[in-house]
Amino acid sequence: MNFSETKFKGCDYCKSTKYKTIYSVKTKKSLDEKEYYPTSQKKNALNVVECSKCGLVYVYPLPDRQKVLEQYRRYIDNNYLLDITSRRIKFRQIAKKLLDLKKGGKILEVGCAAGLFLDELKTVGYEPEGIEPNVFLASWGRKNLHAKIITADVESYNFKNKRYDVVIFWDSLEHLFSPGKVLKNISGVLKPKGILVINYPDIESTLSKIFREYWWFIISSHFYYFSKKTISKYLQKYGFKTIEDKSSMQYLNLAYLFHQLGRYNIRLADFLYHVTKILNGDKITTPYFAGQRTVIAILQNTS
Ligand SMILES: [Zn+2]
């Protein structure tokens, strides 16, 4: 099957059609739709370019949207659920931090996966709901956490009269076909002075600069690679005032880390995974920095 492309309408931020290629993956011209994953990290990214006008870094050309969405919908990722404990540590921290800005209220998480973040937000008193295209993870969250999750794609979802106090994009904005369109839409569903939280891999991070196209976030399902500069441009354009944008530590379970390393050396990773399990490594979480940032912004105008 011919894996067609999404028609290029220029840079998502400024519409310029001029760009320069940063990373070119020459092994393949296009990817099969099975190579697009909603959660796990898969290499095989295609061309990564930088807009000559505004500096936004994105994938060009973008794959066919319907086919990617179909793959996001039906993919079964058991891996994601192997590391619930350490994912929760980070979500708990952010949930508590949000309390300093707004106590209680309705929260929407875009791309909520299995709903772990929603669960932490509920624990500290919010009314959270999520939107997630992946059927497997969304059903898992509804069944095991009683999380309120809508199985849908945010880019075609109609929020109608729904309004939220907080909207969160945790590692999801870079998966969208048009982050600009979605942020514009979101600015309309946020209440006045509503809070926006975005966690994203920073293409300007030191780790990204060292590892270049081998940086772990350069993967097939990431279509945009934001930086502090380009994220702030988007936020300004859609009426948000940034109140914080800083490096974000992640937490990882040691056994899970070795399991993930299997992408590079399966036998070694398998061995280490079993060793850490024996040593109770699946109970140990470790903080690490991978080159991500978390930005918090407030909606200024609601025109
Ligand atoms: Zn641009």
TrEMBL record:
The keyword Methyltransferase applies. Keywords: Methyltransferase, Transferase. It holds the Pfam family Methyltransf_23. GO terms for molecular function: methyltransferase activity. GO terms for biological process: methylation. PANTHER family: METHYLTRANSFERASE TYPE 11, TRANS-ACONITATE 2-METHYLTRANSFERASE-RELATED. This is Methyltransferase type 12.
